[in-house]
Amino acid sequence: MSRIGKKPVEIPKNVKALLDSNKITIEGPKGKLSMKIHYRLTAEIKDDKLIITRKTNSKLDRSLHGLSRTLVANMVKGVTDGYQKELEIHGVGFKAQVQGKQLNMQLGFSHPINYEIEEGITIETPKPTSIIVKGIDKAKVGDVAAGIRGFYKPEPYKGKGIRYKGEYVRRKAGKAVA
């Protein structure tokens, strides 16, 4: 049996969990998230714990069991604490700032890049070289952060670009040194 799938999801006191056939809705202080689980799985709430069980022991059911439990646990954590990703901008003259519902980035191109901020996501720029992406949906926060990073991935020769905070970029020697 799946080790992760067997563990029940603890539901804190300030969070409401609702089950409607195969749709799980989690509502907390930061917002509301819902997800449909696979029809081969069942969910039930007992004593402030959400338990997901599978009907058979097939390979598909075993793989969906742990995945569904983890997604529900991420939803509970998202509506209580939220998620955030921090990005750093490296490069001379590279900067970012939030203007209304857009993130405006100057990344050394001939034009500024305007990134439209999605609903459910907040972006902060405490410093011109720092971007913080926040939200309650873990997948959406990661997707937005990866999209911003994709505008100018860190390159190995000078180290310029947008990287996650703490990300290590392996540097290479240029052709003059080699």
Number of domains: 2
Number of extended strands: 13
CATH first level of the largest domain: which class? Answer: Alpha Beta
- Terminal-residue CA separation: 54 Å
Strand order of the largest sheet: 11-12-7-13
Q: What is the string of SSEs from the N terminus onward?
A: HEEEEEEHEEEEEEHE
Overall outline: elongated
Name given to the CATH architecture of the largest domain: Alpha-Beta Complex
CATH superfamily of the largest domain: Ribosomal protein L6
The overall average pLDDT, rounded, is 92
Would you tell me which CATH topology of the largest domain applies?
A: Outer Surface Protein A, domain 3
Radius of gyration: 21 Å
The tally of helices reads 3
Segments where pLDDT lies below 50 for 5+ residues? none
Q: Structural class of the helices, strands and pairings? A: alpha+beta
Keywords:
about 180 residues, alpha+beta, Outer Surface Protein A, domain 3, 2 domains, four-stranded antiparallel beta sheet, three-stranded antiparallel beta sheet, about 20% helix, elongated
Lay out the secondary structure:
Elements: H1 3-6, E1 9-10, E2 16-20, E3 23-27, E4 32-36, E5 41-46, E6 49-54, H2 59-80, E7 83-90, E8 95-99, E9 102-106, E10 113-116, E11 121-124, E12 130-135, H3 138-149, E13 161-164
Antiparallel strand pairs: 1-6, 2-3, 3-4, 5-6, 7-12, 7-13, 8-9, 9-10, 11-12
